[in-house]
Amino acid sequence: MGSKESRNYSIGELSSEFAVTSRAIRLYEESELLKPGREGTRRIYSERDFVRLRLILRGKRLGWSLAEIKEIFDLYDSNNGEETQLTRLLEKLDGRREVLESQKQDIESSLEDLERIVTNAQLALDKLDVSKERATSSRTSINKKA
Amino acid sequence: MGSKESRNYSIGELSSEFAVTSRAIRLYEESELLKPGREGTRRIYSERDFVRLRLILRGKRLGWSLAEIKEIFDLYDSNNGEETQLTRLLEKLDGRREVLESQKQDIESSLEDLERIVTNAQLALDKLDVSKERATSSRTSINKKA
DNA sequence: CCTTACGTTAACGTTAACGTCAATTTATTT
DNA sequence: AAATAAATTGACGTTAACGTTAACGTAAGG
């Protein structure tokens, strides 16, 4: 059971894989988001760390702070099967879901705004093109007639 | 034409309306995101400022920096109808759209993750409840038989 | 006139999230 | 063994986005 052939990673590998500096990765450890093992003095990252780093960066792209990300990790980790903990977990998760949903709504509003602006700009641009076309209509019309 | 009965706002009104400090609002001005008029020394905000403030806060909820938000505003404002500007505007807008779309994807991945965790927690909780129910089955079964 | 509420500028403080050395150690290649 | 590459631990610097405090102005109400 539980014998996943899991690779290990050096800090440099993670760094280049995810395009973050090693400084950042160490900071994430200091912030208790990653807990790499040691091989002597060197950090040795497991598959779990790999996954977590991906989650961290995804969180960052959504504008979350390291503290918020840690809260989620802790939440998930503290799942010890006790009813109180489970209930609390569910509550917290629901809170997060709400935030995500409203964030999604913000994005959709933004996309709508963008689209309106794009449409207007396109319209303005088309008008300009039409003017130009008229300005060169002699050549153009010949082509059209042919 | 163009005679929209537009209200004006004091900094305090905006502050309480959007639940941000006046300090923040002044900072947004300093960052050239808002350009309120003056009535003597006091700032007087127009409907346009009102709308922009809403946009600013939406941007912030999406994790954007004030500089990024300003870039968008500038972009939008610089729409002078020249072809080069229009083209540039469209390019930039497309860039923004890509970011928004990928951000949306991040959110959906997060929501999926959440749902998986919730499902598991629910399952674990249900099992606990079932155990409890068995423990009190005498009373329960009477009710069911009746 | 005095108080109260609201607003102003200016300046310093703070926190988060890193960047940037510097000095040293460890591992690998030649 | 010597050189090179990759890591390590401090420690200090930096930027963004405000918070906080001080010292003062202004307008309204009692």
Labels describing this entry:
homodimer; 146 residues; 6 helices; 2 strands; disordered C terminus; DNA-binding
Structure description:
2 copies of one chain form a homodimer. Chain A is mainly α and 146 residues long. Helices cover 73% and strands 4% of the residues of chain A. Chain A has 6 helices and 2 strands, in the order ααββαααα. The first copy, chain A, has helices spanning 11-18, 22-30, 47-61, 66-77, 83-135, 137-145, and strands at residues 37-39, 42-44. Chain A has a two-stranded antiparallel sheet. In chain A, a hairpin with a 2-residue loop joins strand 1 and strand 2. Chain A is elongated. Chain A binds chain B through residues 55, 58, 60-64, 76, 79, 81, 83, 86-87, 89-90, 93-94, 96-97, 100-104, 106-111, 113-114, 117-118, 121-122, 124-125, 128, and chain B through 55, 58, 60-64, 76, 79, 81, 83, 86-87, 89-90, 93-94, 96-97, 100-104, 106-111, 113-114, 117-118, 121-122, 124-125, 128.
**SSE pattern of chain A, N- to C-terminal:** HHEEHHHH
Mean pLDDT of chain A: 88
Number of helices of chain A: 6
Low-confidence stretches of chain A: 140-146
Number of strands of chain A: 2
Kindly report the spatial arrangement of strands forming the biggest sheet of chain A: 1-2
Q: Tell me, briefly, the overall form of chain A.
A: elongated
> Structural class of the helices, strands and pairings of chain A?
mainly alpha
Oligomer: homodimer
- What level of helicity do the residues of chain A show? over 70%
What is the radius of gyration of chain A? 26 Å
The most extensive interface, with participating residues per chain, is:
A-B, 39 and 39 residues
Percent range for β-strand residues of chain A: under 5%
Gap between N and C termini of chain A: 77 Å
Please describe the biggest sheet of chain A, giving its number of strands, its sense, and whether it closes into a barrel.
Answer: 2 strands, antiparallel
